[in-house]
């Protein structure tokens, strides 16, 4: 009985360390394709993430197998700013790969969707989010941010034209993290979940960071919010679990031998 309790405690401790440890640096699978996105935004996003200590692994393929590889090698997926409609070029197979990844606990960040609006997001996650332009100062929604990593996010983001989401169209359980009190009722940053995974939308274009460099802080928080643990850490937890099972089996066999 003591052995069983000890094993359970060790396993719980190991798993707790994996699941609760903050993500200080993450490997980011960054989808950026020049047919849909510009090099300026791609470079700006990459520079922001590397300045915060993250590793950016950029890829441009729409093939399902390449998305599977990006998932296997990184802790989250990030979409570059999309300037042109992209949803028709994504195969159902690739959409399914992304959908299953998030449903199983993975994380994805979308930046502003541009002319694509939320067509790709909606087609992957079966939502009906509507696009809405947001202008003026943008404020942290402290009520919705409470209890999340965004609770300490910058309180105000300076005036900018942002591709927002019409708040009433957000899926159940989604939270608007940044919005304002104007007539558009739009969210410029929101968080959502799908299955066991997390999603973040950031409506900023990342074209000119001089407008407000604090958008970089928001992107960094989004990475921390959706990133999954390192595969090596998950492996450690599994080893603890397997080790515990082995220990209990050996103890049981020893007791049987003594009897």
Automatic annotation (TrEMBL):
InterPro entries: Class_I_gatase-like (IPR029062). It comes from the Bacteria. This is PEP-CTERM protein-sorting domain-containing protein. It comes from Gloeothece citriformis (strain PCC 7424) (Cyanothece sp. (strain PCC 7424)).
């Amino acid at each position: 009985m003591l052995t069983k309790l000890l094993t359970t405690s060790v396993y719980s401790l190991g798993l707790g360390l994996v699941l609760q440890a903050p993500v200080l640096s993450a490997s980011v699978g960054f989808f950026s394709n020049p047919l849909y996105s510009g090099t300026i935004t791609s470079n700006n996003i990459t520079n922001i993430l590397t300045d915060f200590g993250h590793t950016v692994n950029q890829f441009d393929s729409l093939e399902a197998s390449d998305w599977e590889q990006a998932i296997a090698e990184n802790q989250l997926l990030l979409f570059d700013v999309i300037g042109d409609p992209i949803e028709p070029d994504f195969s159902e197979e690739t959409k399914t790969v992304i959908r299953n990844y998030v449903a199983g606990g993975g994380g994805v960040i979308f930046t502003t969707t541009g002319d694509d609006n939320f067509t790709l997001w909606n087609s992957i996650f079966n939502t009906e989010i509507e696009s809405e332009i947001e202008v003026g100062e943008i404020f942290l929604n402290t009520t919705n941010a409470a209890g999340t990593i965004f609770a300490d996010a910058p309180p105000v983001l300076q005036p900018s034209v942002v591709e927002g989401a019409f708040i009433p169209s957000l899926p159940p359980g989604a939270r608007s993290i940044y919005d304002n009190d104007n007539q558009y009722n739009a969210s410029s940053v929101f968080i959502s979940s799908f299955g066991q995974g997390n999603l973040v939308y950031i409506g900023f274009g990342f074209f000119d960071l001089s407008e407000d460099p604090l958008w970089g802080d928001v992107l960094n928080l989004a990475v921390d919010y959706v990133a999954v643990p390192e595969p090596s850490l998950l492996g450690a937890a599994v080893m603890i679990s397997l080790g515990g099972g082995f220990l209990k089996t050996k103890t049981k066999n020893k007791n049987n031998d003594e009897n």
